[in-house]
Structure formats: structure tokens, C-alpha cells
Amino acid sequence: MPVDFVSLAAIALVAAVCPLIAQAIPGKPIPETVFLLLAGALLGPHLLGVVHLTESVGLLSDLGLAFLFLLAGYDISPKNLTSNQGKRGLVTWVVSLALAFLAVRLSPDLSISHIDGIAIAIALTTTALGTLMPILKERQLMGTRVGNSILAYGTWGELCPVLAMALLLSTRAEWKTMLILLAFVAVAVLVAVLPAKAKKAGHKVFSFITANANTTSQTMMRVTVLLLVGLVTLSAVFNLDIVLGAFAAGFVLRYVIPAGNEVLEHKLEGVAYGFLIPIFFVASGAKIDLTAVFAQPVLLIGFIVMLLLIRAVPVFAALSTGRDTRDMSSHNRLAVALYCTTALPIIVAVTSVAVTSGAMSQETASVLVAAGAITVFLMPLLGSIAYHVADAQPIEAVREIRQRPRDIRSIIRDHMTLERMLAREKALTASWQDRAAALQEQSMRSRALEEARDAAQQELAARNEASEDAAASLSEQDLLAQRREARRKRLAALAAREQQRRLRETARLATNADGAKKGDAKHEDARRDNES
């Protein structure tokens, strides 16, 4: 027990310090995730031995992984799957998988029929969309054309490897795995449909959950945690990877609240990014044996190169041939391809399965996880360079410097000014897009208010009609009493108006009299002046 708390305290310290270190670097080129992984590797059992991978830490790490994929599934819009780019993203992932299996087939040390070869093939096709989401938000890429393309291709790069893990890394027969997977999908669909119908029908339970969402009961948050833990438990009982259950929970949550819930999102991000997800990254870093990584540099570099060839090249080719993306600039297409090559959580998951089954050594798994950690740092950095620095038109700058070498300072200054102007234009465009989204949301709210007002007017008209029907059924004596009361009210109103009229008339007469007195006084003063 003390070992668990010591490890947790060290992880909490790392989680609090890493954002400060990342922010201290100008431009924040290195995501804090990289520092979390590096700190885990340094403090882990392979070096300093401060962080121990006990069962308690492992459970919290699994919950962090579950929350990471919950938020990833929740952020995915169905448009990212069904749009033209989304369809090409699926085809692109299939091409990447075929290339990955071909690379494993040609490797002398791997086999496509063994778990280690299948695990590496799946790892070569993944996109760490959950890890990319905060990076895209920090760099203001959400809502831009580049950001939408990353989501379209990255969605399949995270969803398909999860399904491939369930189908290809299972020790059961394929037909049994397929039946279990279909049963899991059926349960997930049922879990999604029932709350959605209860919400639409205004069921008392859903109304209670909504009304107490921000009280001490925190009903909405508790139900969300129940959804996540329930589907993760179900996937574990079915002997499927917990990533599948967490991803399904994110989809279900988005289906139930398609318009989103800002308060709930803030709470989920607070629990996830504030506590559990840092534990997952530090624990993942603690699994890395840096000595084994340095002992196999060829495998490390080779895996990163294979990621670029198998994942980035097909994405770039798909963007270059797509009808609605071929007009994108080459550096923007390159930026999308590089961002989509970011890979880590799935690598951790597939290597863990391979190590547990005895098909892969921990040293090899450490190298692959380290390669995934490097992509979290390297690919967004290269993507950012391709997205921003290329706006400065460096090739054109080199040509101008060759023609006018004496003006090198002014040429560089002009091109850097051009890059800043374009960056400012993109930021303003993103700001206007945010405003447009806010106006659209406001319009939806206004429409909902109008619908509610119309419903209230209809209800009021129904009540008035019911009142008239009830009045018609009253006795004659009651009708006479109501008429006398109505006549008394009319007379009282007439008396009040007459009283107000007299008061106004009295005030007017008093004003006129006062004005007449002042006029007589002025006339008398003038007469005296004339006599004198």
C-alpha cells in the first residue's frame, strides 16, 4: 500500500510540473504528453524505480486509457465517418493495413500468422486521435480545413485498429470472436437507444438526471461514468480490449446528446486530463526500458520510417487525388498526413497484448512504445512546420536570395512578415467560424424557445376553452353573480380613470394660474419701469 501511494504521489507531481515545463518553451513545440512519457521512463522501474507498476497503478492507468478513448469517441462526429473524406479515410486505412501486412510478410523476423506480426501490422496503421485532440485545440486547427481532414482520416485510424485488435489478436476462433463482437455491438446500440428515447419522451428519470446534474448528486456525471465502466467491464468480460468498450461509450454518449453538453464536457475533461490520463501516460512511459531502446536504434528508427511510409504516404496520396481536397496546398496536405501518423495509445495496447501472450519481448515492446512516444513529439512538430513555415514561401525566398544576396535580411523579414499575416488571417477565420457556430447554436436555442412558446400558447388556449366550457355549465345565479362582479370592476375602473382625469385637470389649472400670476407680475414690473 505505501508503494502505491508513493508511486501515485510521484505521478501527481509529474502531472503538475509537466505543463509548466511545456509552457516555458517558446512556442510550446513539445506537447506535455512527451514530458509525461519521458518522466515515466526516468522514474520507472527500469531506471530510478520511484514509480512502480503495481495493480493499483495499473487499474488507474487503464481508467485513464478508457477516459482518453471515451473523449475521442465523444469528439467524433458522424460526418467524419460518412463524408467524402471519411469514406476515403476508410479506404486509405485499408490500404495502410495491406501495406503493413506486406511489410510484416517481407520481414525475416516476423510472421503474419503470429500475434507479434499482427500486432506490429496494426500498430503501423494507427492514428492517436485522442492524443491529437488537445494538440489541435491548442494550435487552433479545429474547424479549419486542415483540422477537418485530420479528423476525417484520423477517425478511421483510431476506430479500425480497435476493431482489428478485437478480431485479429483474439485467441478464440474467428467466428466466435465475430459473434461476441456482434453481441457487444448489440448491447452498445441498446444502451444508446433507450436513453435517447427516454430523453425524447421526457421521461421522469431523464428529467431527474438533468435537473440534478449540477447538484451534489452530479447525476449526469455519475451516469456517464457508469456508462464508461459498464461497457469497459463488458468488453473485459467478453475478453475484448477495454479500448473497444471505452470507444463505444464515447459514441453512445454523443448519440444521446448530439448537440453536446458544455458543462458535462468540462467535468469529464477535468477528471480525465486532470487526474487519470496523466497516470496512463506516465505509466506507459514507465514501461519503456531506455537501455533496451538505445540498444536497438535500428528498430526504433525503422519503425518510425515504416509509420511514415505506411500511414503518411497513403493519406497524402488520398488528399492529392480527392475531388474536394486536391486543391489544398501541398504543405497543408503534408501537414494532415504527418498529424495522422501520430501513434501511441494503440501501440501501448497491442504491445501489451503481445507481451502478455508471450509472443513479444518486453524489450521490443519498449522500443515500439518509445517510437510511438517520439511520433507524439515529432509528427505534430513537423506538421506545424509544414502548416506555418511553408506559408513564408521558403523556396521562393531562396530564389530571391540567390538573385539579390545583399538583401538577405530584408527578404527573410518580408517572408516572415508574410507568414505572420497568413497566420493571423487563419486565426481570424477560425474566430469567425467559431462565431458562426455560436450563432447557429443561438439560432437553434431561439427556435427551441419559439417552439416552447407555441406549445405554451396552445396549452393556454386549451385552458381558456376549458374555462369557457366550464362557464357555460354554470347555473344562472352564478352567471348573474359573475356579471355583477364584472360590472362592479368596470365601474371601479371608470371611477379610477375619472379621478385621474380630475387630478390632471386640477394640475393643469394650477399650472395655468401660476403662469398667469407670473405674467401679471412681469406686466406690473414693466409698467412701473415705464412710469419711472
What would your notes on this structure say?
The protein is 81% helix and 0% strand. With 532 residues, it is mainly α. It has two domains: 391 residues, Na+/H+ antiporter like fold (Up-down Bundle), CATH 1.20.1530; 60 residues. Helix 1 runs antiparallel to helix 2, helix 2 runs parallel beside helix 13 and helix 17 packs antiparallel against helix 18. The longest helix is centred in the C-terminal third of the chain and has 65 residues. The radius of gyration is 35 Å and the shape is extended.
CATH class of the largest domain: Mainly Alpha
Largest sheet: none
CATH architecture of the largest domain: Up-down Bundle
Any idea how many domains? Answer: 2
Provide a count of the helices. Answer: 21
Write down the overall geometry: extended
The parts where pLDDT drops under 50 for at least 5 residues are none
Structural class by helix and strand composition: mainly alpha
How many strands appear in the DSSP assignment? 0
Binned, the helix content reads over 70%
N- to C-terminal separation? 114 Å
What is the beta-strand fraction? Answer: under 5%
Order of helices and strands: HHHHHHHHHHHHHHHHHHHHH
Fold-level CATH name of the largest domain? Na+/H+ antiporter like fold
Mean pLDDT: 81
CA-based gyration radius: 35 Å
